[in-house]
Amino acid sequence: MIPLFSKSENLVGLDIGSHSVKLLQVSSSNDALRLMNMGVAHLPHESFVEGRLAKPEVVAETIRMLASHLKVKRKSLAVSISGYDVMIKKIELPTMTEDELAARMQSELGQYIPYNIDEVDVDYQVIDVSKNRPNFMDVLLVAAKKESVADFNNLLKLAGFDPLVVDVDFFALSNSFEATCGFGDKTVALFDLGASKSLMNIAHKGMPIFTRSISVGGNQLTEAIKDFFNISFEEAEMVKLGESEHKYPIKELEDIFVSTVSGWVTQYQRALDFYYHNFPDDRIDSIYLSGGSCQIPGLDKVLREQLDIPVEVFNPVSRIQHDTKLFDPAYVDYIGPQMTISFGLALRKNREK
Ligand SMILES: Nc1ncnc2c1ncn2[C@@H]1O[C@H](COP(=O)(O)OP(=O)(O)OP(=O)(O)O)[C@@H](O)[C@H]1O
Ligand SMILES: [Mg+2]
User: CA-based angle 347:59:346, to the nearest 5?
Assistant: First the structure.
């Protein structure tokens, strides 16, 4: 039988956001990553409502059209579930063997997980010896709601695909950073600012040590513009992106921007305070921003000033090899930060689970 893939080929990364679907493919040879394929398709407003898939047929059709437009032949994809449907937690346990850990997890899992354990898939991994306590080790626990994994499987089937890897957004974020910038021994906060949520992943040596999904994002800005000028969501989105044919007063728009973003800053600061409270010895070296909303003009500057941490926009795509005849540099600059999660997913190989 002819194998479907050569030995360990990269999967097609598909990030199903609430605002758009992003697809990306890379190839990796001799450790050099090369962009092979990349595209975005917008979803109609309210395809997702409060984080739940509201219009599966519409989203499936969008995925199908994007894949066909990009001439994706493969049927196997890497996708990710995100935010509220996942819990990542670092716990400290006495040093023990793998079998002992498995037994302990079996009996004590309930106390670490805020969900009914019958409703979640759980994975765990020993990440290090404990920094603070001798004879203890750090274990990373990941719990994902079975219902969300099932939703994704059904959606992908509807679109004619077969999800081979169901990853977690937070891991895709840190994998994309590790593959392009590398963590070294730094502690880095990766923020993915989308339409409906902001993901925060504070990682040390590549391992997420603190993750948060905060329900603020670009839609709030669009909603505020919509309400203030009494226009449709679609028109407000164009106003936000500077694409509307009509003129709206800059002063009012600036006020909306300032008041919305200051609400975000409060939420980010609260999460950072929580992190500092729990990890008092770990300062954050830098914040890297990705996701569509990180392109709001001046946002990086506001965050740098308000959070008092160096802030940079992270564009994984511009950091890997790509043919500039196929991928226009201006397009790569514009779209690259939005592709961070799909990029992290595209790093996954067909041999992985
Ligand atoms: N140049 C830009 N300036 C301001 N906002 C932008 C720009 N480009 C995209 N956005 C906003 O970014 C958001 C979309 O970002 P992204 O594609 O990361 O979201 P998503 O992954 O679909 O959503 P989520 O992850 O929240 O479910 C939208 O609110 C869009 O208006
Ligand atoms: Mg997103």
Answer: 5
